Amino acid sequence: MARLFSRFPNVRTGLRRGGGVYLVLAVVVFGIIGFLLFRQHSSGPREAAAGPPSGDTQPAGNVGEPTPRLAAETEAHGDLLASLTSNTESAAVPTPPEPTAVTELPVPAPNPGNAQVDAAIAEVMALMRSRPSEVIEARDRLNKLLPMPMTPPQRQTIQSEMAKLANDWLFGPAAFPGDTLCDTYTVKSGDLLEIIGRRHKVPYETLMKINNIPRPQLLQAGRAIKVFKGPFHAKVCRSTFTLDLYLQDTYVRTFKVGLGKSGYETPTGLWRVRENGKLIKPTWTDPDSGRVYKANDPDYPLGSRWIALDGVSGAAKDRTGFAIHGTKDPEQIGTAGSRGCIRMYNGDAILLYNLLFPLYSQVEVFD
């Protein structure tokens, strides 16, 4: 301050003359000069702290690794600039990754058959509740559903209902009006049950049973009897060990069966009932041991009936020695334990024996 007054003597004199006014003016002037000098001094470091030109880009490498130019500036300006640079880089918003293409999984096509089957079953059930006598219409409507694609429970429901209906339209004593599979026949003089059965392609034994005729000789002329319009057929599924019985193309009932064991599998394909091949407890020779079994042997293995089959097509073509028969081992039904024959419970074998007609009745075996 003394140096300033020596350089500007007039100021000092003015202060003495003007008193406090000049003192205030002097302070203001000195303040302005000091502010200008401070601003000029501080502008250099602020420019030096500026980042690299926009043309300098950071090369690929580890994130946070400084470029050579940035390293030099960090050295010049000390730890503070390095800290700021580090904080700036760590706070940078990461570039979002490219969206991954979403692979759309195929949506299973709806199975209209299932819904249609459910609706049709419900309609038939409603029909039976409202009009119980419409057995034939209910049977035919359910039978038309069986070739459609459906779930196993749906198929089981249809077959179960049709088996119940068969107790009336097939195994009952009377033929229903409008039934194309069963009819009423008036016995003529000289008619024989065997001839009537052959004419309709069904065994006469089933006509005796359904019409409650104890012996064929007791058939009376003028009597109306129920007859079936055959033939009956069977379809055997190896994977489910089942035999489905049909009258012509109409489902009747399902039976559990036993089939050939490994190495003796029941051949697939089409078979037919052999002429003169239906026998009651025939003498049988075991091909493995050579032992001959007779009907009265306590361990006779063939059960109550034997229905011989001839191979027609597929793997069954020209095969012989196979049959549908009963068994002395009912626990093997539903398993693969035979030498290729189709085993049934003895009561089921008798029923099938009374329905399949030689040369006309076919047995299809499939997987």
Radius of gyration, whole Å: 52 Å
Tally of individual helices:
11
Give the end-to-end Cα distance, rounded to a whole number of Å. Answer: 118 Å
Oligomer: single chain
Secondary-structure element string: HHHHHHHHEHHEEEEEEEEEEEEHE
- What is the 3D form? flat
What structural category do the secondary elements indicate?
alpha+beta
Count every beta strand, where a strand is a DSSP E run of 2 or more residues: 14
CATH architecture of the domain at 232-366: Beta Barrel
CATH topology of the domain at 232-366: L,D-transpeptidase catalytic domain-like
Q: Please indicate the percent range of residues in DSSP E strands (runs of 2 or more).
A: 15-25%
Q: What is the CATH H-level superfamily of the domain at 232-366?
A: L,D-transpeptidase catalytic domain-like
Please write the CATH class name of the domain at 232-366.
Mainly Beta
Major beta sheet, strand line-up = 5-4-3-14-7-10-11-13
What is the percent of helical residues? 25-40%
Low-pLDDT parts are 1-5, 11-19, 42-105
Mean pLDDT: 80
Biggest sheet, open or closed, and with what strands and sense?
8 strands, mixed
